[in-house]
Amino acid sequence: MPKRGKNYRQADSQLDRDQTYEPVEAIKLLHEMAFAKFDETVDTHWRLNVDPRHADQQVRGVAMLPYGTGKQVRVLVFTQGEGLKIAEEAGADYVADDELIKQIEGGWVDWEVSIATPDVMGKVGRLGRILGRRGLMPNPKSGTIVKAEDLPLAIKEARMGRVEFRVDRTSNVHVPIGKISFTDEQLLGNLSALVETMLAARPTGVKGMFVKTLTITTTMGPGIRLDLPTALALQTSV
């Protein structure tokens, strides 16, 4: 185990490792324990009762966080024809024409979300080696391949607080829900939206308990284990 710093140890001393915490109490503790000199990300860590080696136990989805992620989100749209005008009017940061695609082939990846219309996926597919490893490849399962007329909504959702999640090979899912500068109410609202989406993504192949543990933490701070019955009962108010 790496040696922890003084601030971390002081924050960790405020936790009782033999108990779990209700979400409201845990979020309050996060704010009390925060010590970093930057606006830390607040992350959730889910340990699931799934075996990712089986196709019917994959967990993947997109959650819409009502209070956003606290991060700047620049949107690039791959489209053509009428989609070009629609994307520009909807406020896309970049609309990928042939010249911009050449820049991407050269290694330029200075944006956070890619959206594409189906008619240009032939061109986009050739960028898979560059976009795929950075999580920038449009995908119908994540709602980033849409018809031209649906571009305004897709762009709006990307900026509002759209987060993708996917189970890893160790049966864990890691999803941010905002920044430590968010209020208790904002973090709780985002957590509630994520809980609803995660439970809806339960695979058909899972038997019995779906979520084993749920932990909330900041970038630099210790993790706080949540009381599962209370956490999984959260519902959004909107």
Can you summarize this structure?
With 238 residues, this protein is α/β, with parallel strands linked by helices.
The CATH level-2 architecture of the largest domain is identified as: 2-Layer Sandwich
Helix- and strand-based class? Answer: alpha/beta
Largest sheet: 4 strands, antiparallel
Quaternary organization: single chain
Compute the number of helices. 9
Instruction: Write the element-wise H/E pattern from the N-terminal end onward.
Output: HHEEEHEHEHHHEEHEEH
Looking at CATH, the homologous superfamily of the largest domain is: Ribosomal protein L1/L10, rRNA-binding domain
Round the Cα radius of gyration to an integer and report it: 20 Å
Strand content: 15-25%
Descriptive key words:
Ribulose 1,5 Bisphosphate Carboxylase/Oxygenase; 238 residues; four-stranded antiparallel β-sheet; three-stranded parallel β-sheet; 2 domains; Rossmann fold; alpha/beta
Give an account of the 3D structure.
This protein is of the alpha/beta class. It has two domains: 6-59 and 167-232, Ribosomal protein L1/L10, rRNA-binding domain (Ribulose 1,5 Bisphosphate Carboxylase/Oxygenase), CATH 3.30.190.20; 75-159, Rossmann fold (3-Layer(aba) Sandwich). The chain contains nine helices and nine strands. It has helices at residues 6-12, 23-33, 82-89, 98-105, 121-125, 128-132, 151-161, 184-200, 228-232, and strands at 41-48, 60-64, 75-78, 94-96, 113-116, 162-166, 172-179, 211-218, 224-225. The strands form three sheets. Strands 7-1-8-9 form a four-stranded antiparallel β-sheet, with helices on one face. A three-stranded parallel β-sheet has the order 4-3-5. The longest helix is centred in the last third of the chain and has 17 residues, at 184-200. It is globular. The chain starts with 5 loop residues before the first helix and ends in a 6-residue tail after the last helix. The mean pLDDT is 93.
